[in-house]
C-alpha cells in the first residue's frame, strides 16, 4: 500500500533525493567505494560540501559576510553553542513553545536571560506578541516554527538588537531576509536532509566577541575557518542535503516551496474548519504551514483512536500529535505532496460520513 508520510522529523524527503543518495552509498562517484566508507578528506567529498554551501547561499540569497557551516549535535547543541558564542551579558528569548523553552534553559548557563514574550499561559496556542524588545540585549532568540504546537512566524522580524533564529522546522520553505539575522540554525532533518547534520548560517563579524574561553569545537570560528572540516563531519547526511538542495533549486527554489506550502496548508485547514469532527488547535493568525495540528471536537473525543486507525489503514503515517499536545499533527514540509494532503483530506471526509 502507498504510504503517506506526515512525520514531524525526520520526515519525508523527495524520492529522487533518497534514490540518488542510495546510489552514492553503493558506489560513490564510480570510485568502487561507498559514500559510507570514504574519508571526508577524499578529493571527491570537498566538492559536495562546497556545492551544498553554495546552493544554500543561492537559494536563501545569503548576502556577503555570512558563513554556512555543517555540524553534528542537532539543533539541541545549538541551544548552548549560540549563547556560548553570542551571549556577553544578557539575551532575550521569546518563549513560543517546547523548543524555545529548551533553548532558553541552556542559555542560562552563560548569562542573564530575559523572557521577552511568552504564550505559555495559553498553552502555546498562538504566537506570543513580541513588543517592547529591550535595547540592551546581546541578541533576541526566536523559534520561527514551533514544531510541536503548530505555530509559525512566517516573516522576518525587525528587531533593534541582533536576531537569532531556530528555523529547524521551516527553513527553506520561504524566502528569508538573512540580512536581518546574526545567526540562523536548523537541525536539517525536516526540509533539508536526512537526520545527522545541523546547518548554521552565521554573520562573520559577530563572531569572536564572547567574554569567555571557548572550547575549540564550540567556537564557530573553528568550523568557519576549516570549512566544516575541523573534525569528521556527517558525510552521508551532508550528501543527502546536497541532493535536497539540488531538488529544491530544480523545483523553483524557496519561492515555489512557499507557494506549495500555502497550497497544502489551505487544503488541510479548510477541511479541518469544515469537517464537523475536527477543530484546529491554533489561533488562525498563528497557524503553521509546516505542522498542522488538530483535534477531535469535544463531542467526538472517543473517535480519536478510531480515526488514527482509519487513517493508518489508508496508508497515513505520523499523523498522531506530539505526546504533549495529543490529537493529530500533519507535518507538511517541502517534500509533502498535494496528493498526500488530498489523501488525508479524503480520509477525514470518509470518516466523517461514517459517524
Ligand atoms: N528546534 C526545533 C524547532 C525542532 O523542531 C527540533 C526537533 N524537532 C529541535 C529544535 C531539536 O532538534 P534536534 O533533534 O536536531 O536536536
UniProtKB/TrEMBL annotation:
Does the keyword field hold Amino-acid biosynthesis? yes
In this chain, pyridoxal 5'-phosphate is annotated as bound at 75-76, 99, 147, 166, 189, 231-232
Annotated positions of the N6-(pyridoxal phosphate)lysine modification: 190
Q: Which residues form the Aminotransferase class V domain?
A: 4-344
Q: Which GO terms describe its biological process?
A: L-serine biosynthetic process; pyridoxine biosynthetic process
Catalytic activity reads: O-phospho-L-serine + 2-oxoglutarate = 3-phosphooxypyruvate + L-glutamate; 4-(phosphooxy)-L-threonine + 2-oxoglutarate = (R)-3-hydroxy-2-oxo-4-phosphooxybutanoate + L-glutamate
Taxonomic superkingdom: Bacteria
Q: Where in the cell is it found?
A: Cytoplasm
The UniProt similarity line reads: Belongs to the class-V pyridoxal-phosphate-dependent aminotransferase family. SerC subfamily.
Please state what the protein is called.
Answer: Phosphoserine aminotransferase
Source organism: Prevotella lacticifex
Amino acid at each position: 500500500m502507498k504510504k503517506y508520510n506526515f512525520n514531524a522529523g525526520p520526515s519525508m524527503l523527495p524520492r529522487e533525493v533518497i534514490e540518488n543518495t542510495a546510489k552514492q552509498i553503493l558506489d560513490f562517484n564510480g570510485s568502487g567505494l561507498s559514500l559510507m566508507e570514504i574519508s571526508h578528506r577524499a578529493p571527491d567529498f570537498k566538492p559536495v560540501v562546497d556545492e551544498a554551501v553554495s546552493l544554500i547561499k543561492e537559494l536563501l540569497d545569503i548576502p556577503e559576510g555570512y558563513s554556512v557551516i555543517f555540524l553534528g549535535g542537532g539543533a539541541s547543541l545549538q541551544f548552548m553553542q549560540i549563547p556560548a558564542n553570542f551571549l556577553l551579558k544578557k539575551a532575550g528569548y521569546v518563549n513560543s513553545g517546547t523548543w524555545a523553552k529548551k533553548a532558553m534553559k541552556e542559555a542560562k548557563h552563560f548569562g542573564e536571560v530575559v523572557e521577552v514574550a511568552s504564550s505559555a499561559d495559553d498553552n502555546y496556542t498562538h504566537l506570543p506578541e513580541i513588543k517592547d524588545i529591550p535595547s540592551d540585549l546581546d541578541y533576541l532568540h526566536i523559534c520561527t516554527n514551533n514544531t510541536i504546537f503548530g505555530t509559525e512566524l512566517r516573516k522576518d522580524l525587525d528587531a533593534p538588537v541582533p536576531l537569532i533564529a531556530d528555523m529547524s522546522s521551516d527553513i527553506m520553505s520561504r524566502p528569508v531576509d538573512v540580512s536581518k539575522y546574526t545567526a540562523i540554525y536548523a537541525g536539517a532533518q525536516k526540509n533539508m536532509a536526512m537526520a545527522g547534520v545541523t546547518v548554521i548560517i552565521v554573520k562573520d563579524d559577530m563572531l569572536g566577541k564572547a567574554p569567555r574561553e571557548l572550547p575549540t569545537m564550540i567556537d564557530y570560528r573553528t568550523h568557519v575557518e576549516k570549512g566544516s572540516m575541523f573534525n569528521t563531519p556527517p558525510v552521508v547526511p551532508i550528501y543527502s542535503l546536497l541532493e535536497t538542495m539540488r531538488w529544491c533549486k530544480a523545483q523553483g527554489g524557496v519561492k515555489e516551496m512557499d507557494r506549495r506550502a500555502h497550497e497544502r496548508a489551505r487544503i488541510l485547514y479548510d477541511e479541518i474548519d469544515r469537517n464537523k469532527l475536527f477543530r484546529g488547535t491554533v489561533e488562525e493568525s498563528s497557524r503553521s504551514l509546516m505542522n498542522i495540528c488538530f483535534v477531535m471536537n469535544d463531542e467526538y473525543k472517543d473517535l480519536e483512536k478510531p480515526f488514527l486507525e482509519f487513517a493508518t489503514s489508508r496508508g497515513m503515517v505520523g499523523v498522531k500529535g506530539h505526546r504533549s499536545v495529543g490529537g493529530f499533527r500533519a507535518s507538511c514540509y517541502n517534500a509533502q505532496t498535494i496528493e498526500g494532503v488530498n489523501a488525508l483530506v479524503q480520509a477525514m471526509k470518509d470518516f466523517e460520513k461514517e459517524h
